[in-house]
Amino acid sequence: MSADIKNVLNSTDGLFDAVVNTKKSEIENFVLVTFNDPVFELRIITDKRDEFKTSLRSLRVSGGGDCPEMAMSGIELGLQKGRPYSYLFVFTDATAKDMYKFERIMKYVMKLVDSRKVDIKQKQFNATDDKKVVVPLDPSIGTAIISVSSGNSSLNVKDKDNTTVGTEEIAKTENIKMSNFGRRIFVETPDVDGLLSDRRSDPTFLQQVVLWNNTNPGDYTVEINSTTNTLVTIHGTTKVTFNYGFSVTKPNYFNETTNRPVADQKSYILIKLNTEGIKLNLQRLQFVDLKDNILFDKVKFVAQEDHYYLTEPINFPKDTFKIVMIAEDEKTKNVLKRASLPIESQKVLPGTMENEAPAVTIFGATKVKASTGKPLQLKCRVTGYPKPKISWEDAFGTTLTSTVSTVREEYEYLNVLNIEKVHQSTTYICKASNIISSDEKIVEVDTGDRFAVVKFSKDKKIEYNKEEKLFCKVNADPPANVLWYLNGNQVEANDDFDISPDKSTLTIKKMKQNYIGTVLCEVRNSVKRLMYNMKLSMTGDVGPEIDKKTTEIFVIEGSSAIVSCRILKGNPKPMINWTFKSKNNDTFYDIKEYNEDIRIEKVSTNDVGTYKCVAKNDISEDSHILDLTIEYAPVVLGQSNIDINQQIGQKILISCDIKGEPEPFISWFLNGLMIVESELYQIDKDNTLTFEASIKTMGQYSCEGVNKFGSIKKIANVSVFEPLKIDLGETNITIEVGRQLSLSCPVKGYPKPKIQWTFMPLYDLELRNLSSSNAQLQIPEFQTSDSGYYVCTVTISGDEKTHLFVVNVKEPIKSTPKKIVAVDGDPFLKIPCESAAEPKSTISWFKNGAPITVGNEWHTLESDGSLIIKDIKTPTAGIYDCANHDRSKVYESFEVNVAMHPDANNLNYNIEYFIENKNGTVPCKVAQATTDYILWWYKV
Q1: Which residue spans of the chain are classified as CATH 2.60.40.10?
Q2: Which of 204, 417, 668, 701 could bridge across to 392 with cysteines, CB 3.0–4.6 Å?
C-alpha cells in the first residue's frame, strides 16, 4: 500500500507543477486534506510552492488492512476549507488493480489546468432525449475539450458545414462497477457535478474526454450516441480571460481585493483583462444568475488604465451569481464574452474558523516620501481570528482615527489611515491584537526635515522586578543628543539602567518601587530641542495581599481546626507573623507561628478568640483577622417562660435572649402563627419584639431560634388591663314628675368592671340595692318618692370607685296658655317667646309635649326665639310650649286654633274719587269676625 500512496503523492506533485509552471492557470491556492480511519486532517492552505511540497512530502503511511477509509469526512473538510466552486480532487487508497486508470485520468486533469480555460457550455440529457449540443466558438478559442459522462456512448463533432471534425481522445474510463465507486482513485471536477446519483443507478459508468485543435470561429454540433442519462461539458482554451477582485474601499492594487464580496456591503470591482497581445476595449459588465438570466448590467466605471478597470461601489446579489465581461476587439471589432465561475458572498460556516494570531502587512512602501502640508493615505492588511482590534498610532502612541473594512469575513481586514496634512517626518504604526497575540508594522514618513520623530514611549505600567525599555528616538541632522531623567535626577548607565549607544533607548533592568514617577527625555541638536514625559507605575501585585474571604471559623469543641492566612500575592515572598487575643481580652500577644496555616488538634475554650496574621515584604504589608468560635445548639440566656401584664396603650418589649453558634435564625409567633413586621409589630436588629398593649395583642408569644444543631423557644404570656376610672359628670338633676331618666355611670377599665347601683331616698336615708348591674340605670317614670341619692359602685381586681347622682323630682308648673287664632291657608304663623329669661340659644319648642324640630320646611326658629309655623292647616292647632331643652322649665304656653279664611267672594266694588294732592280713605267692606284681621292690601 505504501507504494500506491507514493504513486499518488508523485502524481499530485506533478499536478501542482502543471499549475504553477504555467502563467495561464487561474488557480489561486491549494488545500491539502488527508484522511484514513479514523483520522481526517487539514494539512495546509497555501499558494507557495515550497510550503505545499514540504507538507506533501511529510505524509507517512502507517497501519493498514482497514478499509474503507474516512473519505467522506475528508471531502467534507476539503469543502469547508476550499473556496466555492473550486476543483476538488479526491484520491482514495483503494485496491491496486484499479491504479491502471490513474494516468489517463491525470492526463485530463493536467490538460484542464495547464492553460487558461473558459466554460463554453454544459448540458444534461435524459436517457430518451435527442442528444445534440450546438457549440459557438469565437476567434480567441484555441482548443476545445469535451467531457461526456454517461453509460456506453460515442460522440461526433461537426462544423458549420456539417463536416466531421477530427478529435483526439485523451481519457476514457469504462465498465467500472458502482460497487467499487468508493474504493478507487477518483478525480471529481465540476464537469460531473450532480451525476453521482445517476451513476449509482446505472450498471456501468463511462467518462470520455476528447479535444480538437486549430478550431475556426463558428458554431459546431456535438452529437452523442447514448441510451442513458448524459452530461456534456465543453471547455475551451483561450487567449482572452479576465481577473476580478472585490473591495469595500477603493483599491489601488489586486492584492487589496478578494475573490468574493463581503455580504451586505457595497464593494468596488477591479477588473483586469488578460489578452496576450489582443487589444480589447471593455464595453460593460453584466451580472447573471446560474441560469444566465441577467440580473443587472448598468455598471459605471470610475477608473481605467492599461487593461485595468474599476467600477463604482455596488450591492451584489444575495444568491450565487456570475460576472459576464463583454469586450470588443479593436482590430476585428468582434465582440467577446467571458463569464466568471459562480460567485457567492463571503460566508463563515460554524466551526470552520480556527484561532489565529494577527498578522499585519503594509500596503505599499514602508518608507514614504511626503510633502509637508499635503495629505497622505496609509493602508495595512490584517489577518487573524477572532477579529483583532486594529488601529493606527503615531510615534507618540496616540491612537488615530482610521477606517477598518472587511476583506474576508471573520479573517482579513483593511485599515485605512487618511492624514489630512503631514507636518513633519515621523513614523506611523499599524497595530492588531486578539486573544492569541499581537502584531504591528511601521511606516516611516520622511518630509525631508532635519528633526524627524521616530518613536516615543507612552506611559508605562511595569511589573515589579521586570525589565522594560523606554524609547526616545529621532532622526536628526546634525545628530541629536539624548539625556534621560528620572523624577528630576539624570539617569546614567549603571547596575540598574542601560542606555543604548545612540542614547535613544533606556532599559530599566529591574523595576523597583522607587522608580515610580516621571521619566523625561531631552532630545537636542543645534536646530531643535524636544522634551517628552513618560509616567511610570508599577504592577505585578508586588505588595502582600491576603485572602480575606474567611473572617470566622466555627468548630465543635474537641474537633480540629485550621486557622489560615492564605497569601494571594507578594513579591518578594512575604514573611508571616501571628498574634492572638482571647475572647474576653483586649490585648494581642505574639504566638510562635510563621506559616500560612495554624493547625489546632483539639479545640477548647482556651483556643477561642481572635487570630491576626501580618504578611510583610520590602514593598508593604497586609494583615487579616479571623475569629475562632465553638459551635453549639441554641440556648435561652434567661427565663424561658415569662408573664407580662401591661396597661392598654403602653408599649410592650419582649426580648429574645437566644444565643448559639452559628447564630440562630430567629422567628416570632403569636398563638402559633408567625409574626411579620408591620405597623402593629416591629422586630429590632437584636430580635426584640415591640408592640402596643391592646386587647387585640393579648396572647401567647414565642420566639424560636434555630441553627444546624437544634432549636429552642422562649414563651411570653401577654395580658392587658385598663385602670379603673370614673369621669365626673352632672351629679345634680331636677326632673318633673312622670318624666323618664337614664343615669349613666361613666366608668372605664379592663377587664370589664363589676357595677352595683344603690338608692337612698332623700328623707328617710334608707339605702337599698337596685337590680341593674349595667353602666346605665333606666327609670321610666319618676315620682316624687324617687327623689334621693343614686350611687354606682364599680369594682375591678379589688379596686373600687363610686359615683353619686342627686335627683330632685318636682311637680310640673301649671300655666294658662295664651290663645292664638290662625287662619287656614295663611303662609305662616309667628309665635313669640317673650317671657324666656334664658338666652335665646337655649330655647326649645314643644307641641303637645313633644319636641319640635326646627330648620326645615315646616318650622324655623328666629334669632329672638320666636317660632315660625309655615303653611297653616287644620292640624296646626295644638298647645305650643316655649321651654328649656328638657322642658323642665316652661317659659310660655300658647293654645293655637285654626279658623277658616274670611269669604270675600261676590263683593261689590265701589269707585272712590280723590282730589289731587289731598288725603283719601279706602274702606275694606268685608264682613269680619272678631278674630279676623286684615293682612294685605293690593293695587291692581
Answers
A1: 356-446, 456-539, 545-632, 637-722, 727-810, 815-940
A2: 417
| Placement of cell 274702606 in the chain | 923
- Whether the link from the prior residue into 478 is cis, omega within 30° of 0, is yes
Report whether 26 contacts 116 (CB < 8 A). yes
Q: Across the chain, what does the average pLDDT equal? A: 82
Exposure of 500 in the CB half-sphere (CA atoms within 13 A):
13
- Least Cα distance to 71 among 163, 154, 153, 183 occurs for 183
Fold of 637-722: Immunoglobulin-like (2.60.40)
Number of residues in the chain: 940
- Residue 254 three-state SS: helix
pLDDT per position as a tens digit, 880-932 = 988 887 777 788 889 999 988 766 555 556 677 778 887 887 777 665 555 55
β-strand 241-247 against 268-274: which pairing, if any? antiparallel
Q: Inter-axis angle of helices 2-20 and 102-113, to 10 degrees?
A: 20
CA distance 885 to 853: 12
Tell how far CA 792 is from the center of its chain.
Answer: 77
Residue intervals in the chain for CATH 2.60.120.380: 2-237
Architecture of domain 241-339: Sandwich (2.60)
C-alpha cell at 151: 453509460
Average pLDDT over residues 336-356: 83
Distance CA 401, CA 392 (A): 8
Return the CATH fold of 2-237. Jelly Rolls (2.60.120)
Would you say 392 and 429 are in contact if contact means Cβ atoms under 8 Å apart? yes
Four-way CATH pick for 545-632: 1.10.1270.20, 1.10.520.20, 3.30.450.20, 2.60.40.10: 2.60.40.10
Can you tell me whether residue 92 is helix, strand or coil?
Answer: coil
| 377/396 Cα distance (integer angstroms) | 19
> Cα separation of 194 and 232, whole Å?
12
d(CA 572, CA 577): 16
- Report the CATH architecture of 356-446: Sandwich (2.60)
Q: How far apart are CA 534 and CA 27, in angstroms?
A: 52
Split at pLDDT 50, 70, 90, the class of 104 is very low
Residue 546 grid cell: 491576603
Outline where DSSP puts E strands in 185-267. 186-188, 206-212, 218-226, 230-238, 241-247
CA distance 752 to 241: 117
Determine the Cα–Cα distance for residues 914 and 906; give it in Å rounded to an integer: 25
Residue 196 has pLDDT above 70, yes or no: no
Place domain 456-539 in its CATH homologous superfamily.
Immunoglobulins (2.60.40.10)
Res 668 pLDDT > 90: yes
Cell digits of residue 647: 396597661
Query: Rounded to whole angstroms, how far apart are CA atoms 494 and 492?
Result: 6
- The bridge status of strand 376-385 relative to strand 356-363 is antiparallel
Look at domain 727-810 and name its CATH class: mainly beta
Residue 260: burial class (beta carbons within 10 Å; 0-12, 13-18, 19+): buried
Return the C-alpha cell found at 475.
532622526
Helical packing angle, 2-20 and 49-57, nearest 10°: 180
- What proportion of the chain, given as a percentage, has pLDDT over 90? 31
CA–CA gap between residue 282 and residue 326 (Å, rounded): 6
Q: Which of these ranges, 20-29, 646-655, 874-883, 913-922, has the smallest mean pLDDT?
A: 20-29
Q: Residues 211, 171: contact at Cβ < 8 Å?
A: no
Task: Residues 815-940: name the CATH superfamily.
Answer: Immunoglobulins (2.60.40.10)
* Distance, CA of 137 to CA of 155 (rounded, Å): 18
What whole-number distance in Å separates Cα of residue 342 and Cα of residue 324? 11
CB neighbour list of residue 127: distance below 8 Å, 6 or more residues apart: 226, 227, 228, 229, 230
* Structure letter (DSSP) for residue 737: T
